Amino acid sequence: MIKYLLLIVLTLGTYSSLLADLCKIEIDLAGCTNDQVKVTVIPPTLSGNSTLYIMPRSVPGTYSKDDYGRFIVDVKAYDASGKTLPVSRPDNDIAVEGKLAKLEYWVNDTWDDPQGGEVFQPTGSNFQKDTNYLLNTHCLIGYFVGYKMLPYEVTVIKPNGFFGATSLSKKEESSAKDVLIAKSYPHLVDNPIMYCIPDTTTFTESGTKVMVACYSPHKRITSGMVAKDLIPTAHSLGKFFGVMPVPNYTFIIYFAGMDMLQRHNVMGFGALEHSYSSCYFLPEGRGGEQTTEEIVHTASHEFLHILVPLNLHSEEIHSFDFKDPKMSKHLWLYEGCTEYFSDLARAQDTLLTEKEFFDEMNQKMKTTTMMTRGQPLSLVDLSTNVLTPENQKLYPIIYEKGAVAAFLLDLHIHELTKHRLDLLGMIRKLMEKYGPDKPFKDEELFEEITKITSPKIMDFFNDYIIGSKPLPYNEYFNKVGYSYKDSASVNVYQFASANIFFSRDNVEQSILRVRRENDFGAKDGDTLLQVNDVVITPANRIEEFTKNIWAPKTGNKVTLTVKRGSETVTLSATPVIGSKTVRNIIEQMPNPTAEQIDFRKKLFKKM
Q: N or C: which end of the chain has fewer CB within 10 A?
């Protein structure tokens, strides 16, 4: 008994010592000036008389080199007596000569800084004085060489009335400041924070407490509206997971107003996943224009990252090198499988019909063909070399071809194991062996999968994941009673010339952009008021234009009502039957076999 008590005392003593030796950070949001925030760093006990403070070149989940140290300016370093120490900036890191006791610097936000245009908004930082602060901590905070795994204590001085939405633990919370705790630098980077006047909604799904935190500059979208849309998806994901792998989760959503979109170089809308949260940058529009599908699909994808890579990943992800990042060859697993699961989970519930599921796959196939121009592409090569400039342009294919490849792989696993196992089951078995704290070796994953499934599965990997052979759509779709054709000539209703589009410069009005003559006689600058008897709003104009003009379903006359100057003008035209080449055609077979129907039921099992 004495031995065990002594062991406990020694263990507690070591743990307390570790907690005492931490990196202390202060971020002064209340003192924000000229889109800059001051950061003060009190280092842990450092050995030696020279110090290197690393700012990340990249972070997990971004698959791009962004060099966050370039946003750090006006660096000052002091010893314990307050004496200024020499500072240099090798490769945008911070090198200090002397015994460092305090480091001070200012940070430019990536959204407003002229050189920050290429940083994807959900991975960057936003400092809107007294309005909104979106803090991806890797944009503001670095780590000392050799001390990356020490705990961090981050004090945030905040404007009065602001709330910090994050999944980080709060040691202290008051009207003036928060004190946040992270067990290490990677843990800190894994948890974004958004400060603003609070707009949060919380709900519980399958034992997981979910917080939705929103910022909408014109109050057109609220957290309650988003939560209402997310709850059915969270419920379907809860059933898909079986047991939710996290106790809490935070959706941090920034809705950008048109003024911001016009003022900044917006890289694109989307999100970045984290272990216990995800960070979003989406258009605010007029509220109604922000469709449920856009929010829900993105949120579903990010939430599903709880599986991969957050609970199953390679050494390259687990021991991420912030200074010289190495990419895993398995982005097809991290992004492709996750994107596929986001569709499958909803199809196994009631949120997607089978037709809508195959429509999703079809669109991904078309996008892949368009982006690759039909040229062969290896998903492993793209993953491994994703940081090269040429592959940065092709990177979105990992979500498109990767998702379809995951679908075919799922069918193949079903078949090889006689439905004993599917893709999700395979990943769960891998998670049992590995998990969040035990990474796999990049070069050994395929071998591990063959042990779980069948040696025959390596042919699929060699041909379609490692290799660059075209995915065998028809062969695999046939297994579940669907047929596929690369292209076919079909007769459809169409206008001889319907080259009418919408201006992107004015979200409030539906101003037409017309480059050439068209069947309707519409002119550039006309403001669309009605299509037939439907009053046009920013929320419905794309849908109405698609079904009536861009892809009409009948030969009925279509009437547009437009405002031209001070006049209201009525324009009409009638579509005619014409031949059109349609690509990537997926159709349900009229007489599927009993085996095909059974396979389909096992794939789309209703949970």
A: N
Using CA of residue 32, residue 36, residue 40, residue 44, what is the dihedral sign? positive
Residue 128 domain-assigned (yes or no) = yes
d(CA 22, CA 25): 10
* pLDDT 10s digits, 380-420: 999 999 988 888 888 889 999 999 999 999 999 999 999 99
Give the residue from 154, 177, 196 where a domain finishes: 196
For residues 457-479, average pLDDT: 97
Domain count, the chain: 2
Task: Tell me the C-alpha distance between 100 and 581, whole Å.
Answer: 69
Q: Work out the burial of residue 251: count CB atoms within 10 Å of its CB; fewer than 13 is exposed, 13-18 middle, 19 or more buried.
A: buried
Q: Looking at the predicted structure, is the pLDDT value of residue 440 above 90? A: yes
CA dist., res. 17 & res. 19, Å (int): 5
Alpha-carbon distance 394 to 391, whole Å? Answer: 5
In a domain, 430, yes or no: no
| 410 falls within a domain | no
CATH code assigned at 538: 2.30.42.10
Q: What residues make up the domain containing 500? A: 496-574
Torsion from C-alpha of 399, 402, 405, 407, nearest 10 degrees: -40
Tell me the residue ranges of DSSP E strands in 224-345: 248-256, 270-273, 277-283
State the Cα–Cα distance between residues 79 and 99, nearest whole angstrom.
6
Return the CA Rg of the chain. Answer: 27
In angstroms, rounded to a whole number, what is the distance separating the alpha carbons of residues 150 and 172?
20
Q: What percent of the chain is predicted at pLDDT more than 90?
A: 65
